[in-house]
């Protein structure tokens, strides 16, 4: 079968090539991949020499966001049959360690992830454990269903926010994750969700998705959006969620909180940068700083949110390419600030 393979980090060590069709174990299914979405940060890390992802074990087929048809089922699989439309949770856990026994599988020391340390979805076919496969309705496109993984991660972040009814929330950043988070938080019981970002086209997309309060960020002068926010919420907001990964924005986000507020860092900070926070501000205002890593057991809720339209998956997809065009697709996603989700089609219908 055809697949994208990275022998080690760096584009020059990768290629679209023929590799063996995956072996289907008795408790596995093989999915014929129809849509596989690029996770810009992860795929860009794979593509940079000497970088890679924190979880990666090379060589590997990247791609942890995908959907398609059941192609083959193992002998112990009875709930799926060939031709079923599905998407899949990319995580695999040992199920028996201290953390897995506490239902805290995110912390499993042998955490497995398709597209990182197990072969993923930028291939014509991918092997997945049966318990990680989710049926999708005919009304849900493969493009939207491929976003199950990022939506599941965002649901975990919303859980970490611990939103109380009537809270006001700021989401910083209007990339795909910021747009997903804003849509989920809109349905969380929050009184107001405000999206702030530096790209007007993405804020316009947010408004089309039902996020009414948006503020444009001037990267050279944060006082502009701070003033606009204070006009909406004079005391500050209850929750700030960072979806930028910028240490400056994370530090600035703490100043947007009202007393007793909490900041949830969702986006990964790249490049080894350190976040420096004001301990006096945090102490005097009893602020909370926490993080959200990956997802665990939230995939079913993600499929439901996409299927019923609470998250408008198709509206997030701005570009589509074939597998042979992967590098062109990645460059588009990395370099074009107006791109949101870029989808690869390993198989054409």
Unreliable runs: none
Number of DSSP helices?
12
| Strand percentage | 25-35%
Average pLDDT, to the nearest integer? 95
Which of globular, elongated, flat, extended, rod-shaped describes the shape?
globular
**Helix content bin:** 25-40%
- What profile does the largest beta sheet have? 7 strands, mixed
Number of strands: 17
Terminal Cα span = 16 Å
Radius of gyration: 20 Å
Regarding quaternary structure, what we see is: single chain
**Helix-strand string:** EEEHEEEHEEEHHEHEHEHEHEHEHHEHE
Structural class based on helices, strands and sheet pairing: alpha/beta
Written description of the protein model:
It is a single chain. The protein has 349 residues and is an alpha/beta fold. The chain has helices at residues 40-46, 98-101, 142-145, 148-161, 176-186, 200-208, 223-232, 247-254, 279-285, 299-307, 313-316, 326-335, and strands at 2-6, 14-18, 28-37, 66-73, 85-88, 91-92, 112-113, 125-129, 133-135, 168-172, 192-197, 213-216, 237-242, 257-265, 288-291, 317-322, 341-345. The strands form four sheets. Strands 3, 4, 5, 8, 9, 16 and 17 form a seven-stranded mixed sheet that branches. A six-stranded parallel sheet has the order 12-11-10-13-14-15, sandwiched between helices. 46% of the residues are buried.
Give a brief description.
With 349 residues, the protein is an alpha/beta fold.
């Amino acid at each position: 079968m055809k697949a994208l393979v990275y022998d080690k980090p760096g584009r020059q060590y990768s290629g679209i090539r023929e590799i063996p069709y995956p072996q289907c174990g008795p408790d596995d299914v093989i999915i014929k991949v129809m849509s596989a979405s690029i996770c810009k940060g992860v795929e860009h890390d794979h593509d940079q020499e000497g970088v890679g992802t924190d979880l990666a074990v090379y060589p590997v087929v990247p791609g942890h966001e995908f959907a398609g048809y059941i192609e083959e089922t193992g002998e112990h699989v009875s709930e799926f049959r060939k031709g079923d439309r599905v998407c899949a949770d990319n995580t695999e856990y040992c199920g028996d360690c201290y953390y897995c026994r506490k239902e805290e599988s995110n912390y499993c020391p042998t955490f497995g992830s398709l597209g990182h340390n197990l072969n993923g979805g930028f291939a014509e076919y991918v092997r997945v454990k049966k318990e990680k496969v989710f049926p999708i309705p005919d009304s849900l496109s493969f493009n939207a269903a491929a976003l199950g993984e990022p939506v599941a991660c965002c649901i975990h972040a919303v859980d970490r926010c611990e939103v109380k009814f009537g809270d006001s929330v700021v989401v910083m950043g209007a990339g795909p994750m910021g747009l997903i988070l804003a849509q989920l938080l809109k349905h969380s019981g929050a009184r107001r969700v405000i999206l702030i970002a530096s790209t007007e086209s993405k804020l316009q997309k947010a408004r089309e998705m039902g996020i009414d309060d948006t503020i444009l960020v001037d990267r050279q002068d944060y006082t502009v959006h701070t003033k606009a926010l204070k006009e909406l919420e004079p005391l500050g907001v209850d929750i700030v969620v960072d979806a930028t990964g910028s240490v400056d924005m994370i530090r600035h986000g703490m100043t947007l909180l009202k007393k007793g507020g909490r900041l949830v860092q969702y986006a990964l900070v790249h490049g080894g940068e350190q976040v420096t926070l004001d301990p006096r501000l945090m102490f005097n205002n009893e602020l909370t700083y926490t993080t959200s890593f990956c997802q665990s057991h939230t995939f079913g809720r993600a499929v439901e949110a996409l299927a019923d339209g609470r998250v408008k998956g198709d509206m997030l997809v701005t570009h589509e390419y074939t597998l042979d065009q992967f590098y062109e697709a990645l460059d588009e996603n990395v370099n074009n600030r107006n791109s949101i989700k870029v989808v690869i089609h390993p198989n054409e219908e």
